Amino acid sequence: MAKKPRRTRKANPKAAGRKSRKPARRSVWGRLFRWTLVIAIWGALGMTALIAWYAYDLPPLDDVPALKRQPAVTLLATDGRRFARFGQVVAKPVTVAQLPSYVPRAVMAVEDARFYSHFGIDLLGLARAVVANIAAGRIVQGGSTITQQLAKNVFLGPERTLKRKVQEVILALWLEDRFTKNQILSLYLNRVYFGAGNFGIEAAARSYFAKPAAKLRLNEAAMLAGLLKAPSRYAPTRNRGRAARRAAIVLDRMVATGVITSAQARVVKRNPARLRRQPVRVGRYFADWALDQARGYVGTGQGDIQVQTTLDIRLQQAAEAAVERFLKGPGKARGVGQAAVVVMGPDGALRAMVGGRNYGDSQFNRVTQALRQPGSAFKPFVYLAGLEAGLRPDTVLLDAPVRIGRFRPKNYANKYHGEVSLTDALAGSYNSVAVRVLQHAGADRAIRWARSLGITTPLRREAGLALGTSEVTPLEMAQAYAAFANGGNAVFAHGVFAVKDARGRVIYRRTGSGPGSRIGPDMLAEINGMMRAVIEQGTGKAARFGYPAGGKTGTTQDYRDAWFIGYSADFVTAVWLGNDDGSPMKGVTGGGLPARLFRDVMTAAHKGLEPKALPGRRSWGGFWSLLFGGGESATAPASEAPTRDAPAASGNSGRATTGRGARPGSSRRWVIQPDDSGPEYPQ
User: Fold this and answer.
1) Is 362 tagged catalytic?
2) Per-residue confidence band for 128, with pLDDT thresholds at 50, 70 and 90
């Protein structure tokens, strides 16, 4: 009998699934654990490598207190008053223990309230800052601790990069390991910037409140702590109201952290800190320029230095006030956006400089850096060339249309006056005559005169040179005109008289003033007589201020630039009005607003001074003339001339051959006729 096959149990799919899933689940968790471990190990290795890489490039950490600072430079005016300071002013270090408790607590309230409870990195504060920034969609809070800020200020630069942030964290941990909390806070308070050139709580306390930091009151401590967020913006020397409002925020933070009570905060808010009398803040354009000069004289390795400058604070204030008054008043209505004014003594020493309407808005110095066409203000150099070439102030020339190749200059309003004297032509600023003088004397001679008197920028050899088409700076023009005021000597414009080191020893003292004599006494008398006619009866009549003076107006095409440059025996002043973008003004000529601004500045400059004659001597007949008179400055009288300056013409410049006429000096009548024989100047 055959055996029955053994019945096998039917497989249960559900049971099989349950048995097979247990090993699979263990396998997934095992792989996840292994990969997490691998990633963690590699991440740790990568982070270690990153830290090692950035740590390799760290600055030396040997001696934190011994790190050097930028030397301080203090600028003094002629009367000894300080008006500017550069560099880092650092007083004797103080410790937290030497300060009233509310001083460091005020700083901590706004900079790092958890300073004493973190290890250099405030993870809670960092998380809070991240949340606030994400909610605002921009950076509104920072997570840096005082330790991190100290690391950044002492060892690192201001750039915001991943490398700097990693190095900041490394250095913060190093500082926390090496120093106590009080030592770190003391280092921070002695190095942080409080505005106005003050580094450290002691320097700031003495600068703003004229007292040591150990004697600061609560309202003063709150104001200083408020500066740390933005020292320039919240500096009480710039805006006391803004500084007081920021101090109120500090007081509220101190209440929130339990440092003071609400009642104390209310009392202090009603009595904000009062500043000491601050040094006068004038001449900021001049200060930048004088600082460059001082560093050029003594270098940067002398430590703290004190610079005695040539600035006259009274005159500087008068010039700044006059510029502000003109730009806000008549200048605004005439489309004038900017101004430049420079006042110097006949020896080249600058007494005042206004490089623009607002230094805070633009540090570009229009006195020393702006290259603009001087227009007819350049004509005195052309006329000097003409005098050297044989012309006389009473030489008669033809004021009529002239063409030199494609160059066809025009007089103002296209008016011409026929035969006029050289003096009349300069006084009336007749363009056609200036071009004829340049034809007679030659462009090379005119350029040589301008160069010898102090014009250093390139000058184009073209017929338009007679009308001032080559760009120059106001400082150059004032420097060149100084020779007319001082007896014919070229000068170097300068703003530094002496420099002393921290011990008071003189390490630089100025000697000499320039290259020396350039204009002889006879020619000087002639040009000064002609330039005086400009003010007395010509285009510069609006510049008269009651003292013997000479000068010249200048207006460029489309009224883009308007100048007046003039001088007495005591001062030389150059005025420029225009717009930075070269846009035209509304009919402003050199004989208008610039002449009036010149008048106001020179009136202030000459307050209390006795009138002096302009220098120069002219001989009209050698020995006999000197014996019987006539040896003093004299020129033929100029006829009545228009009071408006002629804008320089545009277009390509050309050259024509010298006009023909009688021999210079043989007769006072010498007419240079128009000559259209063709161009010789470069086209």
Assistant:
1) no
2) low
